[in-house]
Each structure stands twice: as C-alpha cells, then as structure tokens.
Design a protein that fits this description.
homodimer, about 350 residues, alpha/beta, 6-stranded antiparallel beta sheet, 6-stranded parallel beta sheet, 12 helices, 14 strands, elongated
C-alpha cells in the first residue's frame, strides 16, 4: 500500500466525482467511462468512489482469445499486450473486441460519501461486477498469465464509482466457483422474482451455468404444484443428468433451440398450456422464435442470453401474433449476487457440480 | 375474382395448414415462413387461412430505398424489380435489406377454421400487420409505383395464416393516416397498459409518430396528478408545439438522446425523481443509456425503437447499477390497432396533425 499512499495525487482532497464516473474521463471530454477512449486511473478515491488493490483480472473470453491469437499464445507477450492497453487507456478495454472482463481485489479505501454495497468494508476481498471497459485501472506489474482460464495475476489498483456494482467474495466457496456464479447472477435473481407458485417455467439452455441456477431457483419458486421444463441440446451430459436426478426439472426436452418448429413439436407433451415464464440462457444466436413459441399468451420471456437479437425478438412475436412481455436480461438486480450464491449453497449437488467444473485445478 | 376461382389449386379441398404457415414453405423444408427462401403463394385459402385481394403494397422504407437506388429511381424499373422478387420467392422479401412491409387489400375468402380477428368479414378492407417477409404473395400486375411514399398499387393475392394479424381499415380516417397509425400501434397500446395514474412517464423521441401517440395515451393514463415528459431533438417543430399546446406533455426536454449526460443533466428540473416508465421511440442508434438513466430504480423502460441494441441495453443498465425492467417492444398486443386508432380519434389536434402530414396528397 505504501506506493499508493505516497502518490502525489493525494496532496489535495478530491471531493465528490460524478456518480457515473464521467469526472474520470480524459478523452473525449463529456463521454461516459465506457464510451471513453481514456480514463484517469489515479489511485486515489474521490469521496464517492472506492479504491481497490487488484489481484486478478478475469479477461472476458472473446477479448482474451483475440489477445492470445495476436500474441501467438505466449503468456509474456499477452501480459505485455494487456499492460500496454491499460497504460494507454487507463482501463482494460480491448479496442478490437470492445469488451473487458472483471477484477478480483481487496478494498483499500472507501470514500466518505460512498455508500458501500453488500456491507463491504476496507480489507474485504471483492469481485467487481461492472465491466473493466468502464473501470479506471492502473497496473504496476503483470505477475502471471493463465492462458487456459484467461486469468491474469497483477499488481495494481482500480476505482469503483458510486454507481459501480461489486460483491464480497464468500468465505465458503472457492474463488473460481464464486466467480462462475457471480458472472451470471442476474439470471437466478430474476427467476426468483418472476416465477410464482404453481406456474410453468421453461428454461432454454438449461445445462449451462445460468440455466442450471435458473432451473434450481425456478423449482424453489413454482413449488410442488408448478412445473419446470428444461430445453437442452444433448441428453446424457453431466448437466442434463443433474437436472433430472435433482428434480430441478420435471421434463427435459432435447432439441436444438434454433429449430423453432422442433421445439414447438415437443411442447404439447411437456407443457400443454405452454409456459408462464420462459428463460432464455443459450449462448448461440437464433433462438428468439423458439422462446416466443414456448410462451403462453400473456406470459413473460426473459432473454438473459447476450446472443439475443432485439429485432428478431420484436418482429418474431409480431410475426406469430403473440401478446407476451419480452424482457431484456439486465445483468444487475438488487441483491443478485447474494441470491445467486445462496442458490448454489442451497443445492449441494449443484455446488458439487460447479466445484468439479469451475474450481481452479 | 374469376381468375382466382378458376385456379387449378381449387380442385381439391386443402384442409388445415400449420397455424404459423410452415405448410406454405417450399425452400428450405422445415423452415418457418419468415426464414424461408420461397413460399407457396397459391391463391387458395387452407381451412385456417384467409385469402385477400391485394391493392397496395407498403414497402418498408429501408427496402424501398435500396430498390429505388438499384433502379435509378425509375418507377417502371422498381415495379419490375418487385415483380421479379415476388415471382422468385412467393413473397416481397428484399434479399438485400431482409425487410418487407405490409399490404392493404380486401378479404376474399375466410377458411372455415380461421377465426377472424377484429370482427373482419369477407369484403372488408384490411391492412396486414405482419411483415410481407412472411406473407405468401402472388402478383398479376404492378399498376403504379409512388416513389415518394414507397406505395405500390398492384393486382394480386395474399394469404394470412391463422397466427397472422391484421386490422380492418376504419371508415372515418383516410387510408394513409390509418396506415401511419397502424404501423406503430404497439406503442400507444403498451403505454395504455403500463402507465398508471399519478406516475411520471418519459417519452424519448416524443415528436415522431409513435412518440406523439404515446404521449397522448400517457397523458390519459397518468391523469392530472401524473406527469408526462417528452424528449425531442428540436424545439419549435410543429410536433413539439403540438405536444405543448395540447398538454400531451408537461415538460419538453430539448436534447440529443444519444448524449446520455446531456439528458441526465436535464432531468432534475423536469422529473426530480426520474420516470416510472420510459418509452423509447427514437429512430437513431445509441439512446439506450439515456433511456436507462431517465428511469427510476424499480421502473420500466419500454424500448419500442427498432434501433435498440440488446447488448447496449443489458450492459448499460449493469454498468450504471440500475435495477429496472427493460422491455423489448413487441409490435403486437391484443387490440392494439383499435387502441391506436382510438387514440387518434380522441385527440382531434393529433388527428389533424396526422391528416396534414400523412394523408395522400
């Protein structure tokens, strides 16, 4: 911490910055941090900011692949590449992919006017839940690069704005398992809000991280009189077996969700009146229509997948004359990190699955 | 009608087709009509279809501009181009833009198993409210092309599936005014559902067709204790004057909705507690963040604009830590055509504005 406290920037008090961080934008003036080319990464918290020591960068997979390809997969070259980007832009914002990632670190300083989320205090280890593309970041050194996970150990500091979201890392879960859950925390949190006792919930892409957590949460919410239907591309995978063995789903439909007619053909047996709530958790494009067709008139489709096309959803529902509410998957909901982590704790079999799959080897 | 009734296809009864029209798909087999390359446009209604005589095609503006550019703006060449597309594909589905439009016509035949919407009977004039990209269409002739409006007078037939939506053309409004309203019917219909007495509603892009109808409808719903705020790019336009003169809005913010910080700076005066409901009606990209920032925590953003980016909305809300519900603008809602037309009738000043602007000259 000494090198930070010695920083010349600390000579004068900083006052309060803009809650969205626009006071940290150097170029172009007037932009918001995500849209900006360059941020002020000075390691000093304004009154409404939080300063963190950064231990690990989780570079998002699209960005890491691009960097790795550009560097021939060489860890040292990848590290130098990341250092150059952060030095140039004051944030880890890949100019090619436009994406970032998140960081893990420790809270160094909480500004007097910053109201911490999640009961976080100085010294706590946290995961940032806003993108690195809008997070002021300063790196002193790259310590190591794990080319298999996209995790980069660093020495440096980051700033979280008043509007920034983050979660305290739990003591009872391996860091990598917690990260895997926090990455998709919005999905189970929204299912908890939207699913009601006795309803039919259909989760498309039920075998992925967000899908598994959504099914487990849906099961809790709909109760014994409700019904949970999962749609997965393959039977017999560990995730598909888990869904059935643990009764997270009543029925598993094995179908390619891009084939809307195939999905529709499977619905009469699995959910004769269709679903009150459809949760789309797939990671491929072209599944909007299947999602719409699984939803009953007056129901809700929650598109958590980032592969969703806005126009395909809007025009798809119109094209088949479906009067349904379609929701854009907001990555944030109040308390979403706590709900997601608790979902895992409440379901030991799911926790074991995540531990086997995501804990660092 | 004679040439139709003589058609060889009429020799045998057709039975019922798929409610989504997949029985009409010729290439590739198994696709749904919108995704298909070629449809069966035989002018004969299956039991659950409706056959219409087509009078006018309203080619969507992106498609018409592309065709017109390719044809040097020559009406005859444009007509030949459209005829060639329809002959090749069995639908007016522009292969370059991927878009279609809608048709105006007269109901010729309603299949025995087709339950007509909107009380429509044989002989009624209707507007199709599903895209031409999924509508089986056969053209006998192009009669004229209006290069200023993108309207094409034709002789031909079209099929509406069981799932297809359409509205009877009203007797009391010019066809072009009715079309202008029906084109955006989803917006006022959803505002009617979502806005509640006493709420603050913010309409971004308040000066366009959907924006004006949304403001008028919001005014009705929020009542005297509520507040309607419009955001427009320019003051002093006829639409902006109309909004203020008719009290459709309490306050007009003049700002570029792509400049999120400028919009945010105007909110304390116009809506100190932000909006319960934000309706995005703009026709430019990059306004997701402004929409999110205008919405209070726990509120709703309704993205009616087809320029909306799904990821910009999802990541934008997460980036600023806003717990809001974001809705994809569904072009269809039960009774939407009736609500939209009635909104116009209930507001004579709005009706005059639409008549002056959209009625055929």
């Amino acid at each position: 911490m000494t090198q930070i406290l010695d920083d010349a920037h600390l000579a004068t008090p900083a006052g309060s910055g803009h809650r969205l961080g626009s006071h940290r934008v150097l170029e172009p003036k007037g932009a918001l941090p995500q849209a900006a080319w360059k941020l002020d990464n000075a390691p000093r918290a304004y009154d409404n900011e939080m300063l963190c020591r950064v231990e690990t960068l989780n570079i998002d997979s699209a960005s890491f692949k691009q960097i790795s390809d550009a560097c021939g997969g060489d860890p040292a070259a990848i590290g130098a590449h990341i250092l150059a980007t952060v030095n140039e832009r004051g944030k880890q914002h890949n100019p090619v992919t436009g994406s970032g990632g998140m960081f893990i670190g420790q809270v160094l300083e909480i500004g007097a006017a910053h109201e911490p989320r999640d009961g976080v205090t100085t010294g706590d280890r946290i995961a940032s839940l806003v993108s690195l593309t809008l997070t002021p970041l300063r790196l002193d050194a790259i310590e190591s690069v794990d080319v298999t996970t996209g995790q980069v150990r660093v020495r440096g500091t980051a700033i979280l704005f008043e509007s920034g979201i983050y979660a305290r890392l739990p003591d009872d879960l391996p860091v990598d398992v917690a990260l895997a859950v926090l990455d998709v925390a919005g999905a189970p949190a929204q299912v908890r809000r939207l699913a009601k006792p006795g309803q039919t919930v259909c989760v498309i892409g039920a075998d992925g991280k967000s899908g598994l957590l959504s099914c487990a949460q849906a099961r809790e919410q709909v109760g014994p009189t409700g019904c949970v239907v999962g749609i997965v591309p393959h039977a017999g995978t560990p995730a598909s077996k888990l869904l059935l063995e643990q009764d997270y789903v009543d029925t598993l439909i094995v179908a390619d969700a891009r084939d809307a007619l195939a999905v529709l053909a499977a619905t009469p047996a699995a959910m004769p009146e269709l679903a009150d709530l459809v949760v789309n958790c797939v990671n491929v494009a072209g599944t909007e229509l299947a999602s719409i067709l699984c939803c009953k008139d007056g129901g809700v489709v929650y598109f958590f997948s980032m592969s969703t096309s806005f126009t395909a959803a809007a025009l798809g529902a119109e094209g088949v004359g479906k009067d349904i509410m379609m929701m854009v998957g907001n990555g944030y909901a109040k308390g979403h990190a706590a709900v997601a982590l608790q979902t895992l704790r409440d379901h030991p079999a799911l926790k074991d699955y995540f531990a086997a799959r995501y804990a660092a080897r």
